[in-house]
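User: Predict the structure for this protein chain, please.
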Amino acid sequence: MLEIDGKKVSPWDLMQSFDADRFGADIFDPKEQARWCRAILIGGLPYMWRIARPVLDEIYRIAEIEPGHKVLLFGEALESCGFIDDVNRLVGPGGEVTTIDIQQYARDMSIGGVPGKNGIIGTFPYDFFGHLPEESFDVVLNLQAIEHAEDWTEAGERLLRVLKPGRRLVMAEIFMVTKELPWKIKADLHIQHLIDKIFAGIGRTLEGRPYYSHADLRQAFDWMLTDTDHFEWRGLEAFWGRKP
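Assistant: Here is the predicted structure, written as structure tokens:
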């Protein structure tokens, strides 16, 4: 936010009284600001992942999914993004896809302002896999569930427990925030205004969003995976490795 005369102000604070004549007095209601800013900020995964369709096909190839495989598909918006249909098609009628979608839980934790043990709001323990048999999956595919883990060493152990030796864990996320994003935003005044306005409306900051870099993930999985690698594409980041 800007600082004017020693006071921090957001774009909402600089809306003018006559703006209410055109848009309604609700624009000055903090609850309405939060409601609409959240609606703009979240819910875009099905749109973005369809833009990323060519990259998604490469992610499936890296995962080495084959007909007849048992796949654990974990993440957010699995059905609306088309992930479930995609993986079912790849494994065929002889395969099996187990899905765990954490989207609504992640939203509850984020909107509720609940911090994980790392102190970051919207992160939590990934204790969703305890009911699954050990070494029962040929592929573990995490699509859009990297940023919400409070500890990736702990979460990685839980995911890899259910993966067969020699098989791949592949994770990909369209991150809301990356290390490069803040300076990209500040390169354009209109973009900075829009981002500042959205985050001010929900009472958060861009810097407060969780993010795990490739280096962070390599360190977390140091002794658990071999042949790790990664790529980045327009804010989408993928990381993978093979269970020894």
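The chain is about 35% helix and 20% strand.
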